[in-house]
Amino acid sequence: MSPLRTAALAAVVLLAGPAAAQSRPDPAVCPSVEPFAPGVVSDGNWQWRLSFVPDRSRIYWSTSEGWWPGTRERARIMTATPGEDGGWGAPTVAPFSGTHADMDPFVAPDGATLYFSSMRPREGAARNDMDLWMVRRVGDGWSAPLHLGPEVNADGHDELYPSVDRRGNLYFARVAAPTPVGDVDIWRSAPRQDGSYAPARRLGGGVNTPERWEYNPEISPDGRLLLFARLDRPDDALADAGYGWGDLYVARAGHDGFEAAENLGPCVNSAADEYHPTMLWEGGRLYFVRNAGAPGDIHQTRLRLPYQD
C-alpha cells in the first residue's frame, strides 16, 4: 500500500455501525451502500447528479439514454416528489428542461436558486459546449433560465457540476482544453452585490493536480469542506493511490485555500468508478454514482467527514 493511500485512510472518519473508525475501516463492517430509489431514479439508464430541495420534499437529477458526453444531446433534468408508499413518486421532466441538453442540477442551500449546466442556445446562437445557467424560485415554480455570464463560462469549454455555499460562492468544473477533450479542474467564482459573478479562478494544488482530472465539486453550506471526484488518467504515475479509475475525495478549507485532499477510503470507493457526489451534510448521508462498467446508478450510504460540525 502506498504512503499516500495509508495517510488518506488514517485521516478520514467513516461511520461504521455504532463506532467510528479512526484508521483503515474494514469493508466488511462498512455502512451499507445501496441504490437510491430503485425503479424511479436508479432505473438502469445513465444517472447523473442528484440534488434535494432544503426540506427534502423534492429531488432533481439528470439522466441520459447513453454515456455522456457521447450522447450529450439526450441529457435532461428530472424531478420527483415523495410517493404514497414512503418512496419517491413517478418522475417527470423538470419544467425548464427537456428541450436542450441539460445536466447537473444543484439546489442552493436556501432553496431559492437552482443551478445547472446546459448546451442550450445563447442569444439565439446554437452551442456545442456546456455553460452554467440558473433558475430562480418564483412561487411554486422556477423562472426562465438565466445564463451566468462570461466571467464564469468560457467559450468552447464545458462548465459542469455547479455547487454554491451559503455565501453564494460558486464552484464548478471546467474542461481546460476546448471540448470534448482536455484536463478537467475545479474553479470558483465569488458573487457580486448585483447578483453577477466575479471572474472565475482555478483552485490551488490542494485540490487540482497536473496528473489527474478533478471534477464534480460539492461544497458544504459553510464552505469548509469540498467533496469532489478525481480520475486517474491512463498515464498517471500515481494511479495506485486510489481504489479505482475514479474515486471521491474531500478537502478542508484552510487559511490560503484548500488543504491537501484525502481519499474517502474503501467504504465509499471501490474498484468501480465513483463520481457525482451529493451530501446531506446535516444527516451524514452521501449519494454518488457508482459505475462498474454499465450505466451508473446513484447509490447512498452513511458518511461522516473529518472536521464536519
TrEMBL record:
Annotated keywords: Glycosidase, Hydrolase, Signal
Please identify the protein, giving its name as recorded.
Sialidase family protein
Q: Which Pfam families match?
A: PD40
Cite a single GO MF annotation: hydrolase activity, acting on glycosyl bonds
Q: Which organism is it from?
A: Luteimonas endophytica
Q: What is its EC number?
A: 3.2.1.-
Q: Does the keyword Oxidoreductase apply?
A: no
Extent of the signal sequence: 1-21
**TM helices/strands, residue ranges:** none
* Hydrolase among keywords: yes
Q: Which SUPFAM superfamilies match?
A: DPP6 N-terminal domain-like
